[in-house]
Design brief:
This protein is an alpha/beta fold. It has a single domain (3-88, 133-166), classed as Rossmann fold, CATH 3.40.50.300. Helices cover 54% and strands 16% of the residues. It contains seven helices and seven strands; from the N terminus they run βαβαββαβαβααβα. A five-stranded parallel β-sheet has the order 2-5-1-6-7, with helices on both faces. It has a two-stranded antiparallel sheet with strand order 3-4. A hairpin with a 3-residue loop joins β3 and β4 (42-43). α5 (89-106) packs antiparallel against α6. The longest helix is centred in the last third of the chain and has 27 residues, at 118-144.
Amino acid sequence: MKRICVIGTSGSGKTTLGKTLAKQLRLPFVNSDSFYWQAGWQPASQAVLQEKIFAATSGQTWVFDGNYLSLRHFVWRRADTVVWLDFSLFVVLRRVCWRNARRIIRREQLWNGNRENWCRAWSGVRHTWSTHEGKRANYPKFLAEFPHLQIVRLHSPRHVKRWLNAI
């Protein structure tokens, strides 16, 4: 495992696992949201996003967190491992609610100076709710397009801890 992509529904813990894995394996960590979200919560253009992601994943080693399926051909082609956080809707909704509330209360600065607000937080909950089942249904088809990948599918936070301890 030298080029790892962590995927899953919003709120599943991609960034947390990605950072932990990168630290544990002494690999660079690449956060996809930092490329996508520009100042003022403006999304980067597809061309700019592709260019940044392409550059960030051109190295020999990295851990990348992200669900931008339009970019999977760039990232998954270069990856050797995909870690899929396939948690229940209840788990991810609870996590995204707590995460968003914490960000608002603490006024955490996110990518490019952005801060969460209640409107964006609610939008994130709706996004998680509306995309969870589709991602769960489509990931196996998408992953099958890349037979070279080692797939690690983790179904619960407890499963993640056991897997990390085994590495």
